[in-house]
Amino acid sequence: MRPWSPAAPKRRLRLVAASAALLAVATTAGCGNASPSVAAYVDGTAITSAQLDAAVAGVGTTVEQGQQVSPQAVLDAMVHGLIADRIAAKNGIVVTDAERDAALKGSNLEPLLPIPAAAEVAYDVADQQIVAQKVGPQPYLDQVAQQSVTLNPRYGVLDEKQKLIVADGSGSLAKPASPSPTPTP
Fold first, then answer.
1. Which residues contact residue 51 at a Cβ distance below 8 angstroms, ignoring those fewer than 6 apart?
2. Which residues contact 117 (CB under 8 A, 6 or more apart)?
3. Three-state DSSP class for residue 176
4. Residue 164 carries which DSSP code?
5. Ramachandran angles phi, psi of 113, nearest 5°
6. What are the pLDDT digits (tens) for 6-39?
7. pLDDT above 70: percentage of residues in the chain
8. How far apart are CA 48 and CA 130, in angstroms?
9. Which of 58, 70, 104, 122 could be a cystine partner for 112, CB 3.0 to 4.6 Å?
10. Which one-letter DSSP state was computed for residue 67?
């Protein structure tokens, strides 16, 4: 053990300050590309809050009165659309608008197609289905798990394996605006 000296408290203070600085750098290092104006990053590609807001507004024009669009569900579709694009490129797959339209024909997403901002969300969902079908379900899921996704925490928590946002547990793009009042007897 070292004998006490008048400089010991100053050294200890510098050591504590240096440790605190290193801890601050280490805890913020994972947020290097985080920005409040970005909803999510998929392998470094940003989905901005403005893009998400436009998509939510576009989808919102198609829902029934009394329903609201879930930003988390729309963001999930957008994230998975980018993931599907990357998996398609990696596997030499080209997805055409004709394939997307065919996949969406007769589905509950078909009404989104005439609205440009909403059509992108519908195409993101179609891309997932088409690419998963062409690659194979399990290989597709394996490749999804390998993708790097960073989610802005205000939209929920990301399931790292499936790259799904865990927010309200619903997979629906729309939800009731508020619960119906219960009549009192």
1. 39, 78
2. 54, 55, 57, 58, 59
3. strand
4. E
5. -60, -35
6. 554 444 334 333 333 333 333 333 444 567 899 9
7. 71
8. 25
9. 122
10. E
Structure token digits, residue 182:
């219960």
Query: Is the sign of the CA dihedral 147, 150, 153, 154 positive or negative?
Result: negative
* 137 CB-side CA count, 13 A: 0
Distance, CA of 73 to CA of 77 (rounded, Å): 6
Q: Which residue in the block uniquely carries the two structure tokens 């939800």?
A: 175
The answer to whether 104 and 126 are in contact (CB under 8 A) is yes
Could you write out the DSSP letters of every residue in 9-60?
Answer: HHHHHHHHHHHHHHHHHHHHGGGTT--TTEEEEETTEEEEHHHHHHHHHHHH
CB 39, CB 150: distance < 8 Å: no
DSSP string for 96-134:
-HHHHHHHHTTSTTGGGTTSHHHHHHHHHHHHHHHHHHH
180: tokens are: 């119906």
